[in-house]
Amino acid sequence: MKKFNYEVKDKKSNTLKGSVEAATPKQAADVLHQQGYTIINISEKGEGLSLPFLGGVGVGPLSQFTRQLATMISSGLPLADSLTVLQKQTEHKVFQGIIAEIGEDIQGGNNFSSALAKHKDVFNKAYINVIRAGEASGTLDKVLLRLSDNLEKEREFQGKIKGAMLYPIIIVIAMVLVITIVLIFVIPKLSEVYKGLNISLPLPTKILLFLSDFAVHFWWLIIIAIVGGFFFLRSYRKTVSGALVVDRIMLKIPVLGKLNRDQSLTEFTRTLGILVGAGVPILEALKIAGDTATNAVHRDAAAKIAAMVEKGTPLSKAVESSEVFPPIIAQMSSVGEETGKMDEVLDKVARFFELEVEEQVKNLTTAMEPIIMIILGIGVALLMISIILPIYSITQAF
Question: Is this model's pTM higher than 0.85 or not?
């Protein structure tokens, strides 16, 4: 299918512009004629170049767009006009072009969810399906408000985690740089001194000199190993089996494993809640929400739960049978089934896991400082011992 830009007149002689999908210009003209338009001009639209690595759309601009769009629609402004206003207001150049294309699709007769589905790198499955449910129920403004609330929570959540982990990351990078400088520039000078003295070196000094010599002569091999290992691990994790193996190991790491688990469950339960609240069927909502879990083990478990629900098993029983999900999710799902307020219950569960993550991150960052200082102290002590022991041997000889 190709895209064609058109300029037409409606029955009231108003000039309209937009785009339509068709195999040929004739088919595009037939579609417009069927809609009662008089065609002025039709031309094929060139395919736009997608460069997400040059400017992807983050949670911030998307949240702002959703909130403003909800406000405009609830005020009675037509969707196409709202998109035109937002396109002019948006400072993000990439997002500005995307909004323009969505607006053209709306004017071309497409519905909002179908127009969004053409930009899946910006709007995920959950977002599109919530919009589709809102269109079907005539509550687009309400689901947009829920979406914007959800995006703002996600933005705040991610910001807290990134902000808390910034200090430890900087310290670790600084440690690596210091060790690299010492091994490559400082130790080789001492090595020349020790060789000139022709003395027997203690074991710690020999190990330090070996590491220094290896770093000086085989630095390129170290870089290749680090970069190659990173890309191999990333490629392996993109496979289904690889993601399960890596993420299963991740969950078993002390402290970090629980943090990873709760972060993944926060995304899953929050997305499932908003989908159910928007009217998306529970089976479809499970499949979509499962994809939003950041850990592959949870994605796999969600798919198995969806298969059980499809066979008629209640959600709470299906979740209870899984060893992956904590008991609180099954218990709260049972409450949601009994009260008929599954979306509200799931939102509370998501908030519970979010608070757990915030507390863990806070404790982790508090504990990281003394741990890093202890590691630095041990490193400096070993370094000093390795350097001073040969000097002590020399003084003993004299």
Answer: no
